[in-house]
Design a protein that fits this description.
alpha+beta, single chain, about 35% helix, four-stranded antiparallel sheet
Length: about 160
């Protein structure tokens, strides 16, 4: 290969690497901007959802939760979508209990999170959140308008 061919090869390679670097930076900036937009309409908090229950301790998805009136909205962390992936209505969800993460959950979830068992009209649901977020979640459930069907069991 001649020196000109090598020079062209390196120029193309540097262009591709530069484009990849710019793409990664733009993606990071877009994620930060999305998080700020989500937080603008109400506080967000770290909330993981167990989407697959086939294997014990597996199937957790990291995300952020946001209360929006009588609904709890869940957004994936690394998605650019402005709409929530899951929405649970306050009168369709009830707190069943909490536990500490075990086995592979300890590495899949944030360090200070507890696993929260809930029951919904669609079946059982596991969420993971910090203890302070759990307090807020329970207060949100209790704050429902009169006549709602929530069933809160005391913490042990």
């Amino acid at each position: 290969m001649t020196e000109e061919v090598w020079l062209e090869f390196w120029i193309v390679l540097l262009d591709v690497l530069g484009a990849l670097l710019v793409s990664v930076l733009l993606y990071g900036v877009a994620l930060i901007a999305r998080r700020r937009v989500l937080a603008r309409n109400g506080g967000t908090f770290e909330l993981s959802v167990r989407a697959r229950t086939g294997k014990p301790g597996r199937g957790w998805l990291l995300g952020v939760g946001r209360y929006s009136g009588d609904s709890l909205e869940w957004f994936r962390v690394f998605s650019l979508s402005p709409s929530p992936k899951y929405v649970w209505r306050r009168d369709d969800i009830s707190f069943s209990g909490k536990r500490t993460p075990s086995g592979p959950e300890r590495t899949a979830l944030y360090a200070d999170h507890v696993v929260v068992a809930c029951s919904t009209t669609g079946g059982s649901l596991e969420l993971a959140m910090s203890s302070s977020s759990l307090t807020g979640f329970q207060a949100w459930l209790e704050a429902g308008p009169p006549g709602t069907n929530w069933d809160l069991k005391p913490l042990r």
